[in-house]
Amino acid sequence: MTSIGILGTGRVAANLAGKLTATGHHVTLGSRNPETTAAVVAAAAPRIAVADQHTTARTADIVINATPGHSTLDRLTDLHTELTGKILIDVSNATHDARDGLPGDLCYPGSSLAEKLQAALPDTHVVKTLNTMLFTVMTAPDTLTTPPTAYLSGNNQHAKTTVTGLLADLGWQPTWIEDLGDITTARAAEAMILIVPHIMRRHGVQPFAISLTR
User: Fold this and answer.
1) In a domain, 24, yes or no
2) What integer pLDDT is reported at residue 120 of this predicted model?
3) 36, 59, 82, 141: least surrounded by Cβ within 10 Å?
4) The domain spanning residue 133 has which CATH number?
């Protein structure tokens, strides 16, 4: 059993926490308001622990970033000490909102949030994945009619192998996982989000993944 800390308490974090707990991992949600969050989580999912973000990052074996991408860099830089030596899985997208609230321009054009995190946290193994799909698909990839793709970017191969194992626990088959290379390749995966708002405006919010087909 792996101890997993998830930074964030929104839909993405709750979805991942539920599935990872169900597969036998010990999961802690890292909240900026842990007392309020704990009361909600205790009623809905009593097996999931809640703590402040510093405690969550310090005590977990693996940390997942599910905080809003536009504010992630500041939040996680503040956790530099707690994240030292850890695998940090970044599933977020850093964008500025368009007028209708959907993702607009990238916060880091010509780079990526994952690259910024790796530069700010040099002693942390950052792995980018699961940011190219609706959050429900992260934990139920087999519900789509076409096999989806989970892209991986990161500098440390051992970290990516560990993350691949967690993806399997979430229901991802090995052939659905595409290792793009080092952390600089995350800029390609993050840029894929720019197509999503145009699709949503035409078809509404439906489960999707931006997939590679052969």
Assistant:
1) yes
2) 98
3) 36
4) 3.40.50.720
Any domain includes 153: yes
How many structural domains does the chain have?
1
- Tokens of residue 178, six digits: 């595409």
Tokens of residue 72, six digits: 């992630």
- Does 44 have pLDDT greater than 90? no
Q: How far apart are CA 185 and CA 65, in angstroms?
A: 18
Alpha-carbon gap, residue 214 to 200, rounded angstroms: 25
Alpha-carbon distance of 147 to 175, in angstroms, equals 9
Give residue 81's identity as a one-letter amino acid code.
Answer: T
Q: How far apart are CA 49 and CA 41, in angstroms?
A: 8
Give a yes or no: residue 214 inside a domain: no
Instruction: Count CB neighbours of 179 within 10 A.
Output: 17
pLDDT in tens, 126-157: 999 999 999 999 999 999 999 999 999 999 99
Residue 21 and residue 124: Cα distance in Å, rounded? 24
pLDDT greater at residue 200 or residue 159: 159
Give yes or no for a contact between 110 and 187, defined as CB atoms under 8 angstroms apart: yes
State which residues form the domain around 141: 3-203
Q: Is residue 212 part of a domain?
A: no
* Degrees, nearest 5: CA angle 206-207-213: 125
C-alpha span between 26 and 33 (Å, rounded): 20
